[in-house]
Design brief:
The complex is a heterodimer. By secondary structure, chain A is of the alpha/beta class. Chain A has 18 helices and 20 strands. The chains are: A alpha/beta, B mainly alpha.
Amino acid sequence: MTDKKPIVVMKGITIEFPGVKALDNVDLSLYPGEVHALMGENGAGKSTMIKALTGVYKINAGSITVEGKPQLFKGTLDAQNAGIATVYQEVNLCTNLSIGENVMLGHEVRDKIGMINWKKTHAKAAGFLAEMGLGSLDTHAPLSSISIAMQQLVAIARSMVIDAKVLILDEPTSSLDANEVEELFAIIRKVRDSGVAILFVSHFLDQVYQISDKMTVLRNGKFIKEVVTKDTPRDELIGMMIGKSAEELSQIGTKKTRREPEPGEKPIASVHDFGKKGSINPVDMDIYKGQIVGFAGLLGSGRTELARLFFGADKADSGSFTFNGHKLTVADPSTALRNKIAYSTENRRDEGIIGDLTVRENILIALQATRGMFRPIPKKEADEVVDKYIKELNVRPADPNRLIKNLSGGNQQKVLIARWLATNPELLILDEPTRGIDIGAKAEIQQVVIDLAGQGIGVIFISSELDEVVRLSDDIEVLKDRHKIKEIENDDTVSQETIVQTIANTNVNSGKEE
Amino acid sequence: MSGATAKAKTTVRKSGAGKSRHLDPQMIPTIAAVVIFILMLIMGQVLFGTYIRLGFISSLFIDHAYLIILAVAMTLPVLTGGIDLSVGAIVSITSVVGVKMTIAGTPSWIAMIAMIVIGMFFGLLAGTLIEEFNMQPFIATLSTMFLARGISSIISTDSLPLPQDNNFDWVADPIKIIDNPKIANDLTFNMGVVIAIVVVVFGYILLHKTRTGRTIYAIGGSRPSAELMGLPVKRTNYIIYLTSGTLAAIASIVYTANIGSAKNTTGVGWELDAVASVVIGGTIVTGGFGYVLGSVIGALVRSTIDPLTSDFGVPAEWTTIVVGLMILVFVVLQRAVTAFNKKE
């Protein structure tokens, strides 16, 4: 390993966007026949680093050397010509074209007068696919006819066409299941053994440990360390990624002590027989001030459906909803907001953020909606609100005038929470607030949830990650197949296992439970 | 578990793919256009007895060679999800300039070259606006359309007849293949038709046999993907609008030679006839799918609507409604096909 020469040396890479240093003096070296993982939280600069190497962004300072030759990439084509191929998280191929065409696009076999020879082109594509064990794919079939996992492999085959020396895999496993990941890894190893340098980016620590030889850790756009994977314990890696020690981390990991409702205390929200036909069967439940109620259940169990009824995003057709002692009919979200009920969606990108507005505008939008369009928020008050929440929730970069689409997922989530906090809710529903964000931001958001409950807000917390639900919740409502099957008082005897068992052993059709 | 089913699906597809190659569902709208064209001819023949005749077919091609050329021109931008609204106005300006030059005594071949250069200029201008100033093709070509139309009107608002014995005649002079001495039912063509055929062949080769053509489809599929794949997206977009502008000028030569005169109001709305032809021919307006040959059929369908509606006694004003309805039907058909594909 030591006598090998690196294929790519990136030195002192700095990239600035207006007002922010996305990368500050970062180094990265890639060696042939090695899988190198680029690690860091969302917003650490991984994507920016990849985009520097693929010619999407121009670097402000530093140098990129490929096989000893200094390179100045002006575009993706330059990087490709230098032998750098990339497979992106959202597969960047053309679904309107055939598999073979996608493999060969821009490199079709041509005859002497420059006409494409389709027969040879498809034969060549089939050859590349066969090398990866995909010989049975019909190159004439449309790309849209194969699964995302397969498309990813097709994208890798494409990199072989350009005879890539460096293959960048940006979150390749995020939409794959376990078997598909294994298949992908087998191919990655094959490509690696042929002497290609692979740069691997993933949120999944297990996978990184499984496939990578070395890791480079970034944090806040800065280079932290390059380490050998097998010599680095996980907690040390996580510590480097989020800039906290392993002990600090384990504190977040411990279970919160349960907040017992006082005897005689009235719940802020209480529902009875609350449901909607075809969506969620009638449910009874109470939420107290400062209590975190977790919804546990698989996808499709009805957890989001129930949450949407609370917020009026869908209208309940049975039962009653008592809020602060009053009967309430939440016909629509604006009624919910007026009554200080807020709902942060699980679908952050499509139903949550408004990408082309700034952080500031995204925070203020719900508050403004509650005031009506003729009563604008005074600038001073608006500034205060925005500053307060950016600070409180530690939104990074702390620039209210940045477009939210340019923030990392975790920070977008914080802005969304800020949006609802600005409306001063008494009941806050968080649907999958930690989905698709990295460990560091996850821990921060979990802490935020605990703090909010501490301030007396009732929180409904929905997550597919059971350990999160178990750690944070006071009560857990277990849902299965659109029924609430059990309410668990989350004391020290309750673990993930308890919930898994409950879901597995309760028969929905035989009545509710007990 | 979902992965396992996805994989099972791929294996099924693998075995079935050989068959599906013969009938790509994306071709259904184009095939429908062919069927409808044939039905229109049969209907015309049955009801009026003049449609499936050499004379009718000959004049269909001779009179509408320009529209076939424009339809090919329009296919390129539409395949990328763009549009070129300036083609009608380019016909107008090039026609007025060409005839003016001929009247002033310029040899006609120089006038024709000048016309083509003007077409190229407007195409390049549109390409520059789109690529360098990041304008939507719709807006960019809308502005070049007004520009071309405006200049054309400044030059002259009169009807300008081509002088006698001009050398545009070789384009329009009929060439008879089958001469029926008694009745007017000759199989005729002219160089205009030949030019149109050459343009169609050119379009076909460009789209299906060159890397530029494949890049056009890739841009239509997903421009960001095409860029990330390292395809020359920018250059290709220049080529597209340069080509559509140039082809519009060629259409103008054919049309002007046929009509024997020029006017600044020539070509109003032709860009939309071209779009109609492209859409009827099965090209999807959002880009990525479509065929030049489909556009040709579309142009023929569009051209047959006029005589058919007039033979039915439908007032000329109503023709546009028929065209509108046809477009509607084809777009609905395309949507249905796309939805069906997604379901699969």
